[in-house]
Amino acid sequence: MDITRLSYPHTDLNNPGRTSAPQEAQMAVQAPFRITVTVTGMSCDHCVGAVTEELRALSGVRSVDVTLGTGAVTITSDRELNGAEITGAVAEAGYALAD
């Protein structure tokens, strides 16, 4: 989430005494969370599938994109995921995050 786009409600100049949030801020709040991590040890499509399956099982995850060659895994979710959740899911698949 790009927190620089968030802003506090401001006074609506057309209706004094009434406040409203800018449309941009409302849209930013709805934007998905994205995080990219590096997973070590993956060497085939089966590895990618195992990691993808475990990460998709986490609550709120919308998508998981894995680049086998680099081990880069981008997770898009409706909520902020913590490191323990991601580490645990990757470990459940039999792999680890790079240091």
UniProtKB/TrEMBL annotation:
Domain of life per record: Bacteria
Statement: the UniProt record of this protein carries the keyword Transit peptide: no
InterPro entries: Heavy-metal-associated_CS (IPR017969), HMA_dom (IPR006121), HMA_dom_sf (IPR036163)
HMA domain mapped to chain residues: 33-98
A Pfam family that the UniProt record links to this protein: HMA
Residue segments, region Disordered: 1-26
Composition-biased stretches (Polar residues): 12-23
Keywords, alphabetical: Metal-binding
Protein's recorded name: HMA domain-containing protein
Organism whose genome encodes this protein: Pseudonocardia eucalypti
